[in-house]
Fold:
Amino acid sequence: MRFLNVTPAVVLALGLLSGCASNYEKRGLAYYAETRATDVEFLVDETWVDTNDVRQVDQEIFDTIFSMIDDAEQFVLIDLFLVNDFGYEPGPCLSPYSQLLTDKLVEKKTSDPAIEMIFITDPVNTVYGSIPSPQFSAMTNAGILVVETNLNKLRDSNPLYSKPWRLLGQPWGVGPGRTLPNPMGEGRISMRSMLKMLNFKANHRKVVVTDKALLLTSANPHSASSAHRNVALKVNAGMAEACEMESAVLELSGAEKFQPLEEEGSDRRADPGAAGGRAQPEGHKVELLSEMRIKEKVLELLENAEPGARVDLCMFYMSEKTVIKAFGKAKKRGVDVRIILDPAKDSFGRTKNGVPNRQSGAKLVKYGIPLRWADTHGEQCHVKMLYVENPDGTATLMLGSCNYTRRNMDNFNCEANLAFTAPPDDPNMEKARDTFDRWWNNEPNKIHTCEYEQYKDGNGWRKFSAWWGETSGMSIF
Structure:
């Protein structure tokens, strides 16, 4: 009888310690779908300083998102990571995007009550249950379904912390409190919320889908982030597939799946290796990828890049070891590789120490890869964009939410990217090349990047810190 009494406790403890199931495919995550598209638009939010050190912006992304919401007739499904006003102070080049997006959605729902509207987001916006979100309350009151992602169902990236937390912290849940200051802005939060925050999990996706169009971006509607540099792709296909991809997040968070459109004739592949080794079909192709599928596609593009190919990368965070080596191997084969990284020094008025980008940059430079830093002045180069152009006349532009880090690429966070393949003379490919070239070379009165030596860092402790954060998962990147 004593054995029978102990067994349930042991089973419970093992369940709490083990975390969620690691098979993302069975949950509908690690998603892949392929379809055709003819109406594609590459969008850029640029920030630079002029020769007088005055910051300037030129933005396209959220105006396009607002137009998509206006044009929708049947539904609006949005999955966005940061939607709050924490740390926001009105000023030059800044916009209250969190409130502007909320107002746009509420206005749409009010004017057309029959339209279905779902807003998926991350618990970080309520500081994990401690501080109510006025934006989410306004959406809910207007009849918009707001779904906070159940991060407990995601795979643990930092087991040294996550396993004890699942046993000792998770059973207590989260909720309001005033024990600790809010690390992201005004107000105070509970110890339970802080302990959950330190588990370092996120639904990091940035997806907007309506019955008319699909957009994936690196941009958050986060007011304090409104001066960041970002990119996006808007397409007229893949809407049904995007709803299917997002349904996995809805279901793991306790909501119903959302699939309002008929199948669009896409080529879905459940095999984890399916994204690699395919011949490029003729014409314009769009691939919708999430989680591990993004890494597979990046490695495929780099491994298949031929000598003389052009490979341009602009990235916010970069530390994934396999991907860094793949860039080095491509360079060794004669591929023309150029990389722009954020210097990891600016974070909403705080100064960061450059980890992990400066350490990753040192590895890339050792491979002989030319590297420049984004010349940031309080904002971040939040872009996650890869452009590959082969001598055989094919080009692929890949972008979205995914940083090139272990947490983002190895089935830990929820992430989503689009890969667009077309001939190099496609206007979007031309714009992508021109944009990167302008950033790389700078322009008269527009400074976008600076030399590698400006933020070169050989400090041994920070090198260890970058390695430890990437390997253990005990880091924010």
In short: The domain at 284-472 is CATH 3.30.870.10 (Endonuclease; Chain A). Residues 2-18 form the longest helix (17 residues).
